[in-house]
Design goal:
375 residues, alpha+beta, four-stranded mixed β-sheet, 24% strand
Length: 375
């Protein structure tokens, strides 16, 4: 999918935007639906390419998965232990569909997952954790084959890095495994909490999400459920950055402020006025903004890597200088040459970008190489 966007700038943004469900939550919830013996209904799901790819993966595994208006229903009857290779190769999150299929069928075959080109995103933490639970992992070229002849069992697992994907994979593997699993060093992102809530709504026994220790007591079966996924904190942050850069007054609704607390702090540093209450965030941006001194991406509750590009773009049009440090993905500054075409003064050395604010950018023809850089 692709296309051209023609944007005429120089106009303040004013109004209200309601944030849709989070893609980064919807995808693991769709993967989790493979574990359910009944019908799962996800409510108010955004129609995105990755969501449609997930439905292709579910159908390829033998499930009935379809849109009903803005909702998705999944009747989980997996009978095929091979993920559709073309769809799996397109999307990084395809790895999340492996653990549920492995749990249900005892075997899964896939190709190594794809996704945005922002650097290496190894799946070794996924595989080593699954191995602790009784899975055998084998790579044959681009193919990945996982088997669990005796089924999956609980284990005490410590992640060397709080990987969101690995945490989700091991949660999905453990919820129906035999015995208890303790996952230490787990990711703390709000999307992990949403996955826990979804699994528990289906009859799972998961506790501790949102902390670095998650405990899962395996259950024999999960039941169907209707569930409304959390709102997209990254999309909310993107709109807030746009409002800050363009000026004006914007209300963003649907997102819990505590999920983007550090972002709101950084916007106040820029000179924006922020008022946050319940699920409403109001931003007012007037006059010249000043650069953040330093932004450093970290796992939650630190500054999200998925908002780093948007923060850099804002700082490029502020006054002063900013240091942006990317700790998670080594090639996530690939969008910088495109911003430079618009007049940005940015110097990149390794995982650090030094931004000299120019006050105002100008129009140019640019190319989006990844989702967040495009934003």
């Amino acid at each position: 999918m692709g296309g051209d966007l023609i944007i005429t700038g120089g106009v303040p943004l004013n109004g209200t935007v309601r944030i849709p469900a989070a893609k980064n939550s919807v995808l693991p919830l769709l993967a989790a639906s493979l574990l359910c013996s009944g019908t799962v209904r996800l409510l108010a799901v955004p129609q995105l390419a990755d969501v449609d790819t997930s439905l292709v993966l579910l159908r390829g595994a033998g499930c009935a998965a379809r849109w009903q208006g803005s909702d998705i229903t999944v009747q989980s009857m997996p009978s095929v232990c091979r993920l559709e290779p073309e769809a799996a190769a397109q999307m990084r999150a395809s790895i999340l569909f492996c653990a549920p299929l492995l749990a249900r069928l005892g075997r899964v075959e896939t190709v190594l997952p794809g996704g945005c080109r922002i650097g290496a995103r190894p799946i070794d933490l996924h595989l080593s954790g699954l191995a602790r639970m009784g899975a055998h992992c084998r790579e044959e070229g681009t193919r990945l084959i996982l088997t669990a002849p005796a089924g999956l069992h609980g284990a005490d697992i410590t992640l060397g890095f709080p990987s969101v994907g690995a945490t989700e994979t091991l949660l999905l593997a453990a919820v129906c495994a035999q015995g208890e699993t303790v996952l230490r060093g787990a990711a703390r992102e709000p999307e992990i909490v949403d996955l826990q809530n979804f699994l528990n709504a289906m009859g799972g026994k998961v506790a501790g999400a949102g902390t670095d220790v998650i405990e899962i007591e395996g259950v024999k079966e999960l039941r169907g459920v209707s569930y409304r996924p959390m709102k997209d904190r990254i999309e909310a942050g993107t709109f807030l950055f746009a409002a800050a850069a363009c000026g004006g007054e914007v209300e963003v609704t649907g997102v819990a402020p505590e999920n983007i607390r550090l972002l709101l702090h950084k916007l106040r540093e820029n000179g924006c006025k922020i008022h946050a209450k319940n699920d409403k965030i109001n931003i007012e941006s007037r006059g010249k903004l000043k650069c953040n001194r330093r932004i450093e991406t970290m796992p939650f509750p630190g500054f999200p890597t998925d908002l780093q590009a948007q923060a850099t773009a804002l700082n490029a049009s502020c006054t002063g200088c900013a240091l942006i440090v990317e700790n998670l993905f080594e090639t996530r500054f690939k969008y910088v040459p495109e911003l430079q075409k618009m007049g940005a003064d940015i110097e990149v050395k390794g995982r650090t970008a030094f931004v000299r604010g120019v006050g105002k950018l100008h129009g140019a023809s640019v190319t989006a190489g990844d989702l967040r850089g495009g934003a």
